[in-house]
Structure formats: C-alpha cells, structure tokens
Amino acid sequence: MKEVIIDIGNHNFKFDGDVQGLFSSKYSIAFEPNPEAFERIEIDGVVTFIGVGELEREYNKADKNIIPQVLYAISKSTKDSDINLCLLVPINQLPQREKIIYKFNNKSFKCVVNGQARTIKINKCVVLPEGQVSYYSLTNPSPYQLIIDIGSKTVNWCCYQEGKMFKNGTEKLGTYDLYNTIMKFENSKGEDYIAEDIEGQIKRGRIIVDESVYKDFLKDILNRIKANINIKNYDACFTGGGSLILESIIKKIPKVQLHQYPLYSNVLGAKSICRKAWK
Fold first, then answer.
1. CATH among 3.30.420.40, 3.20.20.70, 3.90.226.10, 2.40.50.730 for 132-261
2. pTM here?
3. Does domain 2-129 have CATH number 3.30.420.40?
4. Quick one: how far is CA 276 from the chain centroid?
5. In the chain, which stretches have pLDDT less than 70?
C-alpha cells in the first residue's frame, strides 16, 4: 500500500509518493491533432491535457473537476496501484472535505496516462489543511510558532502555542492578486498583458518590478493576519510558492524564517502526519 500526498494548488499540483514533484495546474480538454506531444490522461474516453490550457477559475476546490489531475499526480508519484491518498485544501474549505473524500475514497479508476493503461485503487482518502500541516515539516518548531503559507489565491496561516494550535485562518489573497496589480501597471504603459503572462515575463526580464510592489503585497498579507493575532508574539515561518517571490524581502526581516522547502512544506508535513496515522 503506497501513501501519496497531493497538494491541490491553484497554480501547481505538488505530489509525494515514491517520487516527489510538481506540475502546472493548467489543463485542457480541447481537441489536439497531435496528442502525443502533450502530457495527458484519458478517463472514460475523455482526454485531459496536463500543464497546458488555462487555470481553473473556480475558488472552491470541492467544486473543481480535480479527478484527472489527481490521478495524473498519483501516476507520476508511484507505479503502485493500491493507494492511500491524502489531499490538501485551504483551511477555510475543510468543511467541504467530505465532497472531496467522496470522489476518491474506496474507489477504483481505469485510466490511460501518456498511452499507458493503469488501474488505480484508492483505499483511504483524507483531506488535511494547507499551511497548518507545514508545522509538522519543521525540524525544531518554536514554542510560539506562526506559519504563513502564501499561495496563488490564498494565504493560509496558523499559530501554535506550546505545540498546540491556537488559531488559524485563510485570507483570500495570493500571488494572482500581486500579478494582477503588476499587469494593470504594465498595461497602463501601453502593454496588453493578462495576469497569466506576468510571472513568465518577470522571469524573462521583460518586466522589472519595483521592490516597493512586493513590500506592499507583503504588508497587505501581514495586515490581514494582524486583524486576528498579534504577530509579534510569534516566531514566523513563511512558506509556499509566494514566499519564494518575496524571498529577498522576507530574509531582511529580523527573527523571521523562510522554510527550507517552501514548495513542498505542506506535502512533507502531511506525509509525516499520515505516516503515523496510517501505520
């Protein structure tokens, strides 16, 4: 029985099984005349192309059609056919977890992944909260630990006192909002970008972002969390893909930590939890 952990990110799917990795959350079911050129999975005659197309606009992950991407992630993480599955969602969506569990728990799927037929049997399925599980990936957490997980559409945070969770929450804010701000500024100069263009153009050096834009984004995140807790009472650890974008700023803040594995902290923490629970 193989344990597979999947972080259902709005920007990337992260997975951990025999292999750890990630892929873009973009997908398409449009006809392709040359399907062999793409990563793909076929279920019940419907081919889903992975990593191309568009990002899902639906906010609630329980309402997304995540089955093709989850099965693809399982196929990338292990060759085993008997799976115990753990999925990760934002903290504020945990009340919807039964909808997600119902899709996978004690179900068997036949699919074709990149031309190879597979049968995947999922025995147990559990859903855990993003951000909160990252606590269990820390080697030496502080007695007063704050986790701030910056994703593409949400910021999940949780604070612990003496090893016990004290408060947590989800802010509907993420790097997509940051890129949207940058897009509007660039388009005011006569460009014609969409939000999905921004990350790639920054990496290419076509867009240069003033540090003040990143600082304002971080201030917005912290101000929302401050409405719930006194941040100064905790030792903060930033994680998530968004923390890498803000890395140069975060590292300048005294007594603040950037997670050693910010992209994978959630799957690592969940893996630690599931290993004990399923043992």
1. 3.30.420.40
2. 0.93
3. yes
4. 23
5. none
